[in-house]
Amino acid sequence: MRLPTMNHGLSETLFYQLKNAQMDVLLARVDDKSENCNFWQSFASSWTELDSNKLGADGWEVTGGLAHSTQCGPVGIFGGLEKMMRGAVVSKLLKFKPHYKLKIKVLWAKLDSWDNEAAQIKIDGKLVWERRFQWFEGYFGKICGCPVFEWKTMFARTEVDVDHTGEQAKFEFTSTLDEVGNESVGMRDLYIFYAACADNCAECTGPKDSDCKKCANNWALVGGKCQALPNFVLLEQSFLEDKFTGINGWVLTGNKAGKTVSECNGKSMVGGFDIMGIGAKATKTFDIPPHKRLRLQSTIYKIDSWDGEFMIVKVDGTEVWKTSWNLQTGGANICGQGVWWDGFTSIDEIFNHQAPKAEIIYTSTLDQDAIDESWGFRDFKLWYEPKEACAIFYSECDFKGASFEFCSKSPNFQSDNIPPQIRSIKIPPQGRVTLYENTDYNGKKVTYTTDQTCIQNFDFSLIQMSGHIEGGWIEVEQ
Questions:
Q1: Domain 12-196 adopts which CATH fold?
Q2: Which CATH code is given to the segment(s) 231-386?
Q3: I need a surface site. Which of 8, 187, 227, 231 has the fewest CB within 10 A?
Q4: pLDDT tens string 433-472
C-alpha cells in the first residue's frame, strides 16, 4: 500500500522524521540553562548555517578525512557521508583568557552502520566525552548517508563541562569508526564557552578572588588574593612566545645530546622531553640594580614517569621553590612518550634578596634518563623591588663627622637631626641630589649625580651667610 504524500513530495512518515530531526537541531541551538548567563562567557561558534553550501571549516583542521560539508535532511553538517569516516579527526587550537572551566555544546550526526563505536571529544589530548551508537538507532526514514534503509541516521545533542586552566586548549572531535564507506560522522552547531577567573587573576580554580592561584603581571597572591605590586620593576622576560628556538643566555648542563628546546602541545620550552633528565640544570646569572626583593615567575612542565622526585628552583644556592611529582600528576598525555601523564604548573615566588647578582638554577632530583622522565620551563619573568633612593650627608669631608640620611623627596628640616654644615654627600646609585636655596623649591640650586667627597662652597647667599643649610631644601631623586 502506498503511503499518502504531503504537498512537499515526502511521505508523511518521512516528513515527521525530518521534523523530529529538525527539532533535534533546533533544541541543540537553544541555550536552555540560566547558568550560561550567570558566569559562562561565549567564546566561539562554528557550523551554524542550515545550508551546507554556506557551512565551511571555519578554521578547523581535518586529518584523515575531508574538510567538506554535506546536506543531511533539513540541515547541513560538517563532515558526513564519505567525508569523515575511519580515522577522521577535526581539531583546532584556541587561546583563552584566564579561566577555570570550559563548556562544549555540539550536535553530532551519526550516519549508518555504527556497531557500538564511539563519538569522542578530547581536550589537550585527554578524552573528556564519549558516546557509543548502534546502526539501528535513529529516525525511521532515511535522512542521509548510505542507501541502506536499515542503517539509521541520528542527531545527538552533546553538552560537556570540563575543568581547565591555561592560555590555550586543543579541541579534537573524532570517533572509533573502523570502516570506510558504510559509516560516517558529522557535526554542527558547535558552541564553546569559558568560565572566567576574577580580575587580575591569571590562573584560578573558581570565579572568586580567593580562588586565584596565579596573578597577572605586577600583581601578587597575598593572603589568598591578588594585590598590586606597583614597586616591582621587570628586569627580564623570556620564552613568552608560543614558538622559539634560542635560550637567551641560559646555560644547560646535563642536557641530553646537546639539545636545548623542545615542543609540547603547540608550545616551545627550554629543555623538555628527552633533554632534561638525571643531573640536568638550567642556569643564568643576572645583574640587578639595588633592590630589596625579587619576584620570579615561570611555567614548569613535568613529563612522563616521575615517581616522587622533586623539581627545584634555586637562587644563589637557596631553594625558593620545590615540589614533588608522581605518575598521576598532570592528567593528560600532551608531550613525551604518550604513556604517562604529563602536566605543567605556574610558579610565582617573592623573596628577600639584596646582592647585586642573582644566579637562578632550575634542576631536579630525577634519577633516570630524559627519555623516561624529564622537565622543561617557559614564560620566565624576573622582577626586582628597588631600594628607596637614599642619600647620606656628612658634616666633614671624606664622609666623616656627623651624618644623616634622607630617603624621601621632602625631608623635614624642623624635626630631622641635621648637622650644622654639609661637607660631603653619598649619592644613591642611579640617583641625584639637588640642594635648593628656598624651601619652596625656588631660587638657586645645585644638583649632584656622583658622590661629593669635599664641598667647600655653594654659590648660595643663604649658605654663604649662615655657613650651613638651615632654611635650605634637599630633594633626593632616583
A1: Jelly Rolls (2.60.120)
A2: 2.60.120.260
A3: 8
A4: 877 766 666 777 788 888 989 887 654 433 333 333 333 4
